[in-house]
Amino acid sequence: MTVWEEIRDLIGTGDAFKVAAGVAGLDDAGRREVARELPGHIEVARWEVERRLGERSERLGRIRLERGEAYKRFARERGVPLREIHHRWAETLGWGGDMEGTWEDPRLSLPEAERKYPSRAEYDAWIDPMRVAGAGTISGAAAVVAWLNRRDMERRRGFADLVEPVLQAVAARPAEWQADLATRLALRVRVRRDRWEDDPRDRNLPLTFALLGRTGVTPPEHDPLVVVWASTPPTAERLRDDPLLDTLLPRLFQAQGVGSVLREERADPPAAASWLSALHTLAAEGRVDRELLLRGCVGRFLRGGSVTDLRFFARLHELLEPSPAEVASRAGDYLRSPRSNARSPAGRRRIRLGTGSTSVNRREGSSGGRPPWWSPSSRTNTGPGQERRPVSRWCARPDR
Fold first, then answer.
1. CA pair distance 124, 242, nearest whole angstrom
2. Which stretches are tagged as biased composition: Low complexity (predicted)?
3. Opening angle at CA 141, ends 140 and 145, nearest 5
4. What's the Cα-to-Cα distance from 328 to each of 116, 315, 359, 396, rounded to whole Å?
5. Which of 4, 27, 87, 298 is deepest in the core (most CB within 10 A)?
């Protein structure tokens, strides 16, 4: 038996982990042999699965038909009206009830795995073994990325591809090769509408993040990668252990599209599984640099944008509650925020700050004892024994 025949038989079992173990032990010649045969085996693998599942469906259909005819005879012999026969048949979903407890379900004679009609996931059972075989045998990282993204290996519905078998299959490759694969997969990430309700935004996204974390390679500068990373609301526990946090968090304030993805997060109070809650918690713990978050928010304000794009960053800025010193150190940035156009959303929701720092007043050239950007309507905590502390209201919605 040739190397290809051995791997082909493993693919036929539908077990991706067995395929991963098989290709991981191949030498260079064996990998080349398998990689050469794989493209022509796609239709064969699909046809074999569809044939096997089709035979199972036909067998169950025959059993159901025979069961129905026997059920009708059984009921007529006991004088059951035809209408009641149909009613009882429908109540049992077409398998016939045991009207007197004397019948045994004929499906019990079949193996347990063949007692139900095939599911959509079973029709796609050949995809994971084929993906694993290609990832473990195709020589170039670029060719592996193309293989993993083949349209003729897309699933029928929202069932995720297995990640661990692919990681096992490529574990024997050189570290540089794995890092190259992770980088190329990251650059292929796209933000797209879900075709089905449960589909991931990108089928290779879990594999991409797993490879980036395992190899330790710096993720490439790619806005869609940051957007899809931000699309899953994290808990503080999960985000704390995320190996990509330190690299991708600064890009959260720069990537185009992040504000639109996170615009619905609420800050009063934030949900446990949300970016607002996770970042606020990690900033309080010191795991995330508070200065980084404030600088990122202010920088995002300076870039401008629509109300919805800035809403998340405004809420994060308020949740952090910057101190008077932190506000004073960025007074110039607040003043340079795009708010001159009164017709724009940013202009209608201009920042309002209040402070008691006379040094800031002098630095900003105010002659009236108050900075020129102070507003009487500013919200401040001026309770007994409390100092005046500015609170920003960026892009706040009317219901806030």
1. 31
2. 369-379
3. 120
4. 68, 19, 9, 22
5. 298
CB burial string 271-287: b at 16+ within 10 A, e below:
eeebbbbbbbbbbeeeb
Q: Count other Cβ atoms within 10 Å, centred on residue 172.
A: 14
H helical segments located in 173-273: 175-187, 205-215, 223-230, 236-240, 245-248, 258-261
- DSSP, collapsed to helix, strand or coil, labels residue 9 as helix
Give the tens place of pLDDT for each residue, 192-215.
Answer: 655 444 444 578 889 999 999 999
CB atoms within 10 A of CB 238: 13
Tokens in use for 91?
Answer: 């109540």
Cα–Cα dist 272/269, whole Å: 9
Structure tokens at 238: 């999960």
This prediction has a pTM of 0.74
Q: Which residues pair with 374 in a beta bridge?
A: 353
